[in-house]
Amino acid sequence: RQAWEVDIPRVPLEVLYGTTLIQWLTEHGVTLRLLQGVERLTVEQGTVTRVRLRDGAEATASDYILAVPH
């Protein structure tokens, strides 16, 4: 019944999705690599096991979130 309702933030989006969120994620053990180009994803048995960045560094994790511009 309330699916039509839209919430409007009372704070700037930077507060919701910027430094505050980054700080919270970091405090909870999340490693963020912002503005990093990905060269290659290594997939084994249908699962991403490694990420190679454009600068040659490699990262492994239990979970990955890759975001790209729309």
- Biggest sheet, strands in spatial order? 1-2-3
State the order of secondary-structure elements, H for helix, E for strand.
HHEEE
Q: What distance lies between the first and last C-alpha atoms, to the nearest angstrom?
A: 31 Å
Structural class: alpha+beta
Portion of residues in beta strands equals 15-25%
Q: How many helix segments?
A: 2
Explain how this protein is built.
It is a single chain. The chain is an alpha+beta fold and 70 residues long. The chain has helices at residues 13-17, 19-27, and strands at residues 38-44, 47-53, 58-59. The radius of gyration is 17 Å and the shape is elongated. It starts with 12 loop residues before the first helix and ends in an 11-residue tail after the last strand.
Write the layout of secondary structure elements.
Elements: H1 13-17, H2 19-27, E1 38-44, E2 47-53, E3 58-59
Antiparallel strand pairs: 1-2, 2-3
